[in-house]
Amino acid sequence: GVKVLLHGLCSNTTVKSLDLKGNNLRTMGAEALGKLLRQNKSIRSLTLEWNSLGLWEEGFSFFCQGLRANNFLQCLDLRNNQINHQGAGELAMALTQNTSLQELDLRWNNIGLLGGRALLNCLHSNKTLKRLELAGNGVPGDILKAVEQALDHNQDREAFLSEAQNQVNILSKEVLSLKDEKNKQFMDFMDTVDKQKEEGARSEKMSAARVSQLQEALDEQYSIMNSLKTKLQMTEAALALSEQKVHNLGDLLNAMKQEQNCVAECHSRELQQQKQKGADREGRLLHDLSAASEKNLLLRNQVDELERKCKVQQDQLFQVKQDLTNTTAELKLRAVEAEERLEMEKRRFKQSFEDMESLRVKEVDRMTQQMEASERSMHNRIQRLEAIRISLEEELSQVKAAALTERGQAEEELIKVRSQARLEEQQRLEHLEEKLRLMTESRDEAQNCCLKQKEMVAEAQAKAKQLSLYADGLRKRLDELQQDLDSKEEEKVTELNKVKVELQEQIGRLEAERTAQDGLREKIAALERQLKALSSNHREALLDKEGEISLLLEKLRMKEAEISRLREEEAQRASFLQNAIMAYVQGSPLGTHSSRK
Q: Coiled-coil region(s) at which residues (predicted)?
């Protein structure tokens, strides 16, 4: 029935908790449970209390294989299942590859010392298990403490990972907000550019209309010049109209100059705002780099603390060696006392033998036999004591050699760890210095670009001033022409032919001025294009710098994660060394022999 039930649950996707307490599951049930754990992806809690699964080794191995392949189960209850040290070893092998189980209850089983060690070793590779209950299993206290330390380490690691994830989320939100602000600023800038384009098109239309009006006025002047002989008054009116139009053109030129000055001021303001924003970002980056340097200092302090702990452990090893020497001295003293006691007993036996000879002469033969037997037993005892003393000396020599080898290995490992930590710190510092150098170079390049843009703006302003000077020259020329016209009005009747020639020359000059104005308009358009290209290049450079800044922040986060991982590994190694030394001292034959005595 359990097999059919579990076979049906293999494809179920709604059941989250399964309780099979006290159902006397056997080999077939354990195999079905293993298949269920392989295929089911919804069950998060499984209770198997009082089922004696540990008695069926094959079925329990299938169950452990299913647990190894499962990545969804979070809570498992295996209380009172008669699991021995072999079953605990299979569970440990399954937990090395399982990445989802958080709580495991193994109370009131038969795990023992070997099973406890296997579970402790599996916790070095399993980083997700938070709670492991081992009461009532005959596991030594030092192993239980080591298991608690490993579980606390897993909990601290998960808390650290959650904090790091929260920081990453906060930073991603900030980056998104900055991107939105940049997009808004870019859209505003594009709107201003579009408005400027519309205003330029309107000004071009107005100038074209005015040019057409000027052309019409020139045509009228040509017709007036042809009818000068008959209509001198009409020529004067046409000249007045031309003067008014020239004044209008001067006003238009002034308006264009003002518009150009306004556009240049707007561009300069935007460039100043962008520079201020770039300076603020650089300040933030420098602040982040200072925070990273502070973190590196903290990590160095932690490495120093680990070195101090290693020194303390070395002192403890030295104390253990002293204790070993003291125990050897005590054993030697005890051996000397035992020999003295043997001599005293021999003397007592000799005295009793002499008394018995004097008192009981008749029983000499029987007493001699008893004394020979007693002497043989004493010789046997002496030989046993000598053999025990020799074995103790051999054990002491072995313990000394093992302690020396372990001390050498521990010192070598400490030296390797220190050298690796120093090399990694040097590499990180070099990498950070290179990043700072690159950041300073990029900042200098951005400043150079800003200076170039300022120079271009200054050049444009100089060109605009030149254009204004040229327009002033045109106005002066127009004033001179007006004076010439006044002087020639007095000589209208006498110098009509000369007036015709001068008017033709004036018309040619006006055409040349019109062509010059067209050239100036083309230059203005080219300058506007250059300004647009420079602004687009500056935007692209700013976007590239923002991308580089985000990459540097990600690299800093990765380095912080690596530093935390190295710190955890060093703490694990220190705890493993301490646990190994404590286990060796508690489980050594010297400790057991002294406790028996």
A: 289-348, 382-569
Between the CA of residue 9 and those of 17, 43, 588, what are the distances in Å? 11, 9, 50
Which phi and psi angles does 47 have, rounded to 5°? -110, 120
Q: What is the mean pLDDT of residues 48-65?
A: 90
* Closest to 353 (Cα-Cα) out of 379, 344, 342, 361: 361
pLDDT at residue 593, rounded to an integer: 45
* Chain segment 543-588, per-residue pLDDT in tens: 888 888 888 888 888 888 888 888 888 888 888 888 888 887 777 5
Tell me the C-alpha distance between 559 and 563, whole Å: 6
The C-alpha angle with vertex 420 and arms to 400 and 432, in degrees rounded to 5, equals 160
Closest-CA residue to 538 (of 423, 432, 450, 435): 450
Crossing angle for the helix pair 2-9 and 27-39, to the nearest 10 degrees? 10
pTM of the model as a whole: 0.35
409-413-415 Cα angle (round to 5): 115
Please tell me the distance from the alpha carbon of residue 57 to that of residue 53, in angstroms, as a whole number: 8
DSSP string over 420-448: HHHHHHHHHHHHHHHHHHHHHHHHHHHHH
Q: How is the chain split into domains, by residue range?
A: 2-139
Q: What does the alpha-carbon distance between residue 309 and residue 317 come to, in Å, rounded to a whole number?
A: 12
Please give the Cα distance from 237 to 296 (Å, whole number). Answer: 89
Token pair belonging to 47: 């209770």
Pair 97, 124: CB distance under 8 Å: no
Alpha-carbon distances, residue 276 vs 280, 359, 441, 541, 552 (angstroms): 6, 123, 18, 15, 21
CATH: 3.40.50.300, 3.80.10.10, 3.40.50.280, 3.90.960.10. Which one for 2-139?
3.80.10.10
Separation of alpha carbons 394 and 386, rounded Å = 12
* DSSP-assigned states of every residue in 317-384: HHHHHHHHHHHHHHHHHHHHHHHHHHHHHHHHHHHHHHHHHHH-STTHHHHHHHHHHHHHHHHHHHHH
Residue 408, classed as helix, strand or coil, is helix
Whole-angstrom distance, CA of residue 275 vs CA of residue 202: 32
SS3 105: strand
Q: Quote the DSSP letter at residue 109.
A: S
Neighbours of 395 (CB within 10 A): 14
